[in-house]
Predict the structure.
Amino acid sequence: MRKSHPVRRAVLAGAATVSGIVLLLSLKPASDPGAAQAAGGQVPPAAAGQAPQGGVNGAVTGDAAQTQYGAVQVRLTMANGKITQAEAVQAPKGGRSDQITASSVPRLNQAAVAAQSADIDAVSGATYTSAGYKKSLQSALDKARAAGGAAQGSGGAQTVTGDIAQTQYGPVQVRITVAGGKITQAEAVQAPKGGRSDQITSSSVPRLNQAAVAAGSADIDAVSGATYTSAGYKKSLQSALDKAPAGGGSSQAAGSGGGQAAQPQTQTLTGSVAQTQYGPVQVRVTVTGGKITKAEAVQAPKGGRSDQITSSSVPRLNQAAVAAGNAQIDSVSGATYTSAGYKQSLQSALDQAGG
């Protein structure tokens, strides 16, 4: 067999080496597998849509919503900003209402916890109760949102809904947005309607909204020709402001003393209206450093015998609330209904304070 020439073997070896290099280069991936995975990978759904942690903790009671068959009022138990329990502390009762309430309220409670919002379906056969429940539930969520914003101290906008103010021509209820301790928006979520009231509401409410933002308080002038609507608006607006945590209160106290210890924060809180057999009862408390320093009834039964009962029982109930520091106070003899309403509204006010 002929032997290959040494020079020829060298040339063939060099050609083979070059071909191998070219082949390796042609087989290199178009992109780095790790980079492709990073570019094409998706954030796990739990991380992308997870609700932010933190938020209000404790009980929050919504405003009482009046329905054709009675009042509905919802209390929520919150943990880290989530609803863990919902209950109706008021619901229509008596006659057929007992059966409807017993079957519908538990389902509404479950729906509120499941939805984590007031966007829940009405229970068939309980249209009015469902509507009242959702309205009070939304009110409780508004209060929880406001409380959560105060706890975070972020200075972000908070939405607060005032109590319903009953007027001769219909209810008025105001919702405000507060940012940095100032009213940035005001709106009437309820106002008198029907007949002449439609015209009065359409002309007066926008002016009242503007006045509330401009004044930053409930100290606004009544609109001419809309005396009752103006009075109801101002009352509900004051209730909303009472519920809104004081903006910058703690930082001002800390900064004003040149290094001195911050002063205890004072809050004025108005409880929900408690309906009694002889009329509504509503309590406003002043809380300083977590303690009740003042209690007063801004509404109480009046007229006839009620005037005497109110004048003798309410001052004693006010004193008892301050002394006890909670709603676990004794009823005043001879004023059973007033005492019960007082305690219910007082508890509602304390719920807003986180107590």
Summary: The first strand starts at residue 58 and ends at 61. The chain has a mean pLDDT of 78. The first helix runs from residue 6 to 26. DSSP finds ten helices and twelve strands in the chain.
